[in-house]
Write a structure and sequence with these properties.
The chain contains three helices and eight strands, in the order βαβαβαβββββ. The protein is an alpha+beta fold and about 120 residues long. It has one domain: ADP-ribosylation fold (Alpha-Beta Barrel). The longest helix is centred in the N-terminal third of the chain and has 10 residues. The protein is globular, with a radius of gyration of 13 Å.
């Protein structure tokens, strides 16, 4: 099991702004369909961006304090047998550390704004 203390969510800016107004993020369409909010660890973010968000502009990378999510956060086998963090609850804004833009670079890849 991973012990990453910070996990990450890639989301369109407009969806995140709506979540901020509501005080919680309920998930993107794929999250709602799957029944949990998909996250990535730091070493999974670039691949997640390339695989699921290729060419999309105006995205944000949201950093979340994993420990604050308690038992609602599960690390489960997903792509390529790797463990991915899945949140079986809405994401409260109190667990969010920051949200930063992920602009597209000249080569069409997203810039990953890690600390």
């Amino acid at each position: 099991m991973s012990t990453d203390s910070v996990i990450y969510k890639i989301t369109p800016r407009v969806a995140w702004e709506e979540a901020e107004r509501k005080g919680q993020f309920e998930g993107a369409a794929i999250d709602l369909q799957d029944g949990y909010i998909h996250f990535s660890s730091a070493d999974q973010v670039a691949e997640t961006a390339a695989k699921h968000f290729a060419g999309q502009d105006d995205l944000l990378l949201v950093a979340v304090d994993a420990a604050s999510l308690g038992d609602d956060l599960k690390w489960e086998v997903s792509r390529g047998g790797a463990l991915f963090p899945h949140l079986y609850a809405h994401l409260s804004m109190t667990s969010v550390l920051w949200a930063r833009a992920m602009p597209l670079s000249d080569d069409g890849q997203h810039t990953i704004p890690m600390e």
